[in-house]
Amino acid sequence: MRVAIVTGASSGIGFGCAKKLVDDGIAVLGTGRDAERLAGLAAETDPDRIATVAVDLTEDDAPQRVIDAALDRWGRVDFLINNAGVGSPQPLHETDDDTLDHFLDVMLRAPFRLARDVLPHLRAGSAIVNVTSTFAVVGGLRGGAYSAAKGGLTALSTHIACQYGAQGIRCNAVAPGVTVTPMVEHRLDDPRFRKINTEMTPYPRLGRVEDIANTVAFLCSDAGAFINGQTIVVDGGWSSTKYLSDFALDAEWVPR
Ligand code: NAP
């Protein structure tokens, strides 16, 4: 049985990825900080194919604890899904050093260290998937430290693809657009946030956790076996078009 580590599995996209991979027959070691929500994941999932560990990924010993938990339970690791993240960044000029360090710690340093430390356990046919963001693909209003971390993670993905591809180890990024999870749910009440997302997305709905989980699972499947060093953007066309909805086109122009 193949084994995946999924970080940020206590919520949102990571929770959905863990469930999808288990449904596809892969055993999952899911991580998060909230032990109660991780127990909720375990309760909803085939007990033979799920294990969890509550750990803050910014701690120095986190990668070892996570990898050891997978090896102790199943003796192997085939996939690493670096998904854990934090949202609601501020623009560059409002970002203090503590915030910068925290965003980089969670979304660049932790995935870097996990990937580095899991590498010796990966074999040909293994894969790493880094969950980045459309904010690593196009400019993002208020992106700040978030954009910086996700951009770094994108570059790390192509490095891993290049460096370890010859060993049959692939690495790709999945870049979600706005996806309804606890990270962004509260922001959907803000009409400005809805405007720059729903009114600018040609496909007529917001992203769902399943959209991202299915893409991650595809990259871990035999069907994705020749995809290496790519970013797959899953955003309904938001980042690749200059779409404006009829509503936005007809909206009354308000001079500033
Ligand atoms: P979410 O529901 O808020 O989940 C975030 C996950 O990351 C939680 O499981 C959380 O665990 C974990 N996490 C955060 N800080 C951590 C830390 N220090 N140590 C360990 N785990 C930590 O967010 P989501 O929307 O599913 O986001 C998942 C990924 O998708 C993120 O990388 C995010 O940047 C990316 N993304 C999301 C969207 C979107 O619209 N939702 C768009 C683009 C990209 P605990 O809560 O247990 O601490």
UniProtKB/TrEMBL annotation:
Q: Which Gene3D superfamilies match?
A: NAD(P)-binding Rossmann-like Domain
Catalytically driven reaction(s): a (3R)-hydroxyacyl-[ACP] + NADP(+) = a 3-oxoacyl-[ACP] + NADPH + H(+)
What is the first-listed, main subcellular location in coarse terms?
A: secreted
Q: Which Pfam families match?
A: adh_short_C2
**What are the subcellular locations of this protein?**
Secreted, Cell wall
Q: Which domain of life is it from?
A: Bacteria
Query: Which CDD domains does this UniProt record tie to the protein?
Result: SDR_c
Keywords, in A-Z order: Cell wall, Secreted
Regarding protein family, the annotation reads: Belongs to the short-chain dehydrogenases/reductases (SDR) family.
What this protein is called in its record is 3-oxoacyl-[acyl-carrier-protein] reductase MabA
